[in-house]
Amino acid sequence: MNQVNLKQMEFQDIEKSEHFFGYAGFWKRLFAFVIDWFLIGLMIAALGILISGSLELTNMVTESEGLLELAGFIVPWLYYAGMESSEHQATLGKLALNIRVTDMAGQRIGFLRATVRHFSKILSSMLFLIGYIMIAFTTRKQGLHDIIAACLVINRV
Fold it and tell me: Where in the sequence is the domain holding 22, given as residue range(s)?
């Protein structure tokens, strides 16, 4: 059996699985995104208070701005990639809305694939967010970043 047929079987198997409850749609995923970015904002704000406070004591205020920019890059990456590759297969926002991220066979993704998915969101954001809007119109409710990373976002029980 060639690689293409194997991938088609894996895809068909997820839809026939007793654990498959449909693909998570655009609005559900958007609300999960809003929850996640609110939480990420809180984490970065807390880090900002800690970093600014400790560096002000040492008169290195300009250093704190650079560290906050770095935190604004690292915190979302570790949050998304770490949570989506964990046993929960979801961020806190996705957990709240009963959805999870899987590979094309419905299995848990690894940290590397979750990282690729996260940074592929940069492409999804380009050209008026068309990579995200795709979610509303594709059969499997995939955005560009999902397609690049070969992932699905599906409903939980």
Answer: 3-155
